[in-house]
Design goal:
Two copies of one chain form a homodimer.
Chain A (H helix, E strand, L loop, with lengths): L2 H20 L30 H12 L21 H13 L10 H17 L15 E5 L2 H20 L6 H8 L2 E6 L4 H10 L3 E4 L9 H13 L3 E5 L14 H4 L5 E4 L1 H4 L7 E5 L3 H7 L30 H35 L4 E3 L7 E6 L3 H14 L5 E5 L2 E7 L7 H23 L1
Parallel strand pairs in A: 2-3, 2-4
Antiparallel strand pairs in A: 1-6, 5-6, 7-8, 8-10, 9-10
Subunit structure (chains A, B): Homodimer.
GO cellular component, one term (chains A, B): cytoplasm
Family (chains A, B): Belongs to the group II decarboxylase family.
């Protein structure tokens, strides 16, 4: 594909993408394929000679689309949203073309520097304490991680290193480090995301999943008791991860009780902020704690300007990194703060619309509270009944949702996921739910 | 930005990208900016109201481009290549638009299934043993990781779990796991990439960096002695990472001696195979060893078809993942195996052209052997002399290279990095090198 063919094919793809997204409502949100569907649709080895572009392009609808779960369909209500916006896509084309690997400042100064400033913009939008901002002139600042899983792991590993250093000298035998680690213990709530448990697994430290209150929130007293118990047993508590908006039910840990003074904060603009995946925003009050955990410094990555700007390779697990701040820059500028606020408020309002439908039907109950864009609901009755309802709704294929369970109560989760979702779509989701419930109830009476 | 504006702006960006890449030769490969250049060029906070697209677009040349290290400039010869191709960019636009998060099969079946088959295609192209392929019907298969750093870490963590399980039961106290780990020891060569040392740091296990032979290769005898010594000291050797093509000098560990039967293999199509970053290909003979290390299984991620196809979230550190196999599919089909072979052979030939220039001038010597697309060279003389030469070459700005050091010998590394590099560019690199050497030599005589 030479430049002139790229101009043609790239523009065709832009049109295909606009057509796909504008007409996504016509596609079934969850596909009908069964595992292994794709292998038989394409050859079992790569072609020797290059194929024509037309052949590849027509296979998008033949091979790919029948197996796509359309996350941006207004009828997709599963998990939490993943962001997708036209400005994000346009910025990503530029990022792909520049194609730099921004592991050090020198490997592409613009890549590092735009990220530093964008993380300040975003931090100011959230009213983060000054210490988290690079503009404060202190050791704090933000970094784009690929995923929240990685941000959590990085925070845990930094805390681990900090506590190892407290107990042994830097030149000690690594086996002694490991011996100290056998006393470490970390905490999260029993509602924390699976990636927090996994961070403990990877870091080789036990993660205590503490009981939450009736709203699914971790409380200060619970944490304090656990810490006291562990200290009494000779263990070293070194890390707490609090969650604002749990995946099962969007519960908020009580951070005022758990600890007012977090050393890091992470959220995903690639979820609700119109920045295409991946863009997970993490801030720390002291970036030296990150580089302490990760710094390895070969000559081929050294450059003259070390120390004056962050070398982000010391801030995360991968070495290579894309120019992801371009997406943030385009999105923040083209929507403006107000545009992003409006879009989030619209989704919250739609969630409350669905809540009102649920409350209007006495067969149903809301689980917990409707917070942000998530509605947790269930049929009054057994978990089994609700499992049946979930399966019938998803088998029907008009909408797609996933279940969850908190303290042995099984419920259905409807998240407002797509920027194109409207009141009509919410009404459709409700009509599907009610209609299927009617059928389920009458089948049970027979 | 509505759909009609996206059609217009997306197409303008396609043209901008084609213009950028076709005329990249006119841009200086390494920028002139100093750290902090960008902050003063843009506001210190996000705008309240959305801005016009024209404002954002014109800032690409004003704010971004002056600070870009142009990795795809034919005069960029630093690090190793990062891939960039028109088919890769077009495929990535589609991936962004679909915008699915493929953590489970159900979260987008096409995303998982195309990856399974593409990793088989790629594995067959490399003649990997059948056990590494999903088509073998066994527990092996491939997965796209974000970076080789993550692949190495995943392999190490899997080995760690496998050895922990050998020594304690699955229900044991996690603190006992940690106590067993204090005896673990891992190995790589002293030429291994910094990410291997880092994997040890993250995994909490000591990584022995074993001495290499005169060619920078790890030999079987060295490894065997280290293992014997560690076993005699009561330690448990559990992991070896061999490198084919080290970063300092493109040395190849002697894998026939180190161990014929690797359990995993990783290389980066996002380096030399025209697939834009990120796409790091990893194969394993037994994927159950990966999920053993990582599996955490909340209800909201369960689906009806678990076990029939991989849930890739168990194969790596992040939970979320982009639809990256689309890039592989477009690139493999549009270039064909022959097209990719030709492009790699061209780069190898260009490296030998530069080698010939170096050998034609008796002031210079080649360091090691010219393997693949990397030429390691130096002025006969002290390290200090070569450090001066490197600085002068990079300060001149016509080409950009990085240095390296093996066994206290400092040398310069010229890598063929860009698909647009030609014999003329290699001659330019040589002319710059020779001209600056002439200047350096005469300044030393004065």
């Amino acid at each position: 594909m030479d430049a002139s063919e790229f101009r043609r094919r790239g523009k065709e793809m832009i049109d295909y993408v606009a057509d796909y997204l504008e007409n996504i409502r016509e596609r079934q949100p969850f596909p009908d394929v069964t595992p292994g569907y794709l292998r038989n649709l394409i050859p079992d080895h790569a072609p020797e000679e290059g194929e024509k572009y037309e052949e590849v392009f027509k296979d998008i609808e033949r091979v790919i689309m029948p197996g796509v779960t359309h996350w941006h369909s207004p009828q997709f209500h599963a998990y939490f949203p993943t962001a997708n916006s036209y400005p994000g896509i346009v910025a990503d084309i530029l990022s792909d073309a520049i194609g730099c690997i921004g592991f050090t400042w020198a490997s592409s100064p613009a890549c590092t520097e735009l990220e530093v400033v964008m993380m300040d913009w975003l931090g100011k939008m959230l009213n983060l304490p000054e210490q988290f901002l690079s503009s404060s002139g202190g050791p704090g600042g933000g970094v784009i991680q690929s995923t929240a899983s990685e941000a959590t792991l990085v925070a845990l590993l930094s805390a681990r290193t900090m506590f190892i250093r407290k107990h042994i000298g830097p030149g000690d035998d690594p086996h002694r480090e490991n011996a100290v680690m056998t006393k470490f213990v970390a905490y999260c709530s029993d509602q924390a995301h699976s990636s927090v448990e996994r961070a403990g697994l990877i870091g080789g430290v036990p993660m205590r999943m503490l009981e939450t209150d009736s709203k699914g929130a971790l409380r200060g007293e619970t944490l304090q008791l656990a810490i006291q118990r562990d200290k009494a047993a000779g263990l070293i508590p070194f890390f707490v991860c609090a969650t604002l908006g749990t995946t099962p039910s969007c519960a908020f840990d009580n951070v005022l009780e758990v600890g007012k003074y977090a050393m890091s904060f992470n959220f995903n603009p690639h979820k609700w902020l119109k920045v295409n995946f991946d863009c997970s925003a993490m801030w720390v009050k002291d970036s030296r704690l990150l580089s302490d955990a990760f710094e390895v410094d070969p000559l081929y990555l050294k450059h003259e300007n070390q120390g004056k700007m962050p070398d982000y390779r010391h801030w995360h697990i991968p070495l290579g990194r894309r120019f992801r701040s371009l997406k943030l820059w385009f999105v923040l500028r083209l929507y403006g703060i107000k545009g992003l606020q409006e879009s989030i408020r619209k989704d919250v309002m739609l969630a409350h619309e669905f809540e009102a439908y649920i409350k209007s039907d006495e067969r149903f109950e809301i689980f917990g509270e409707v917070v942000m864009g998530l509605v947790c609901f269930r049929l009054k009755g057994s978990n089994e009944l609700n499992e049946k309802l979930l399966k019938l709704i998803n088998d029907d294929r008009r909408i797609h949702i996933v279940p969850s369970k908190v303290k042995d109560t099984y419920f259905l989760r409807l998240a407002i996921c797509a920027s194109r979702t409207t009141s009509q779509d919410v009404r459709l989701a409700w009509n599907v739910t009610r209609e299927i419930t009617n059928g389920l109830m009458s089948s049970l009476k027979q």
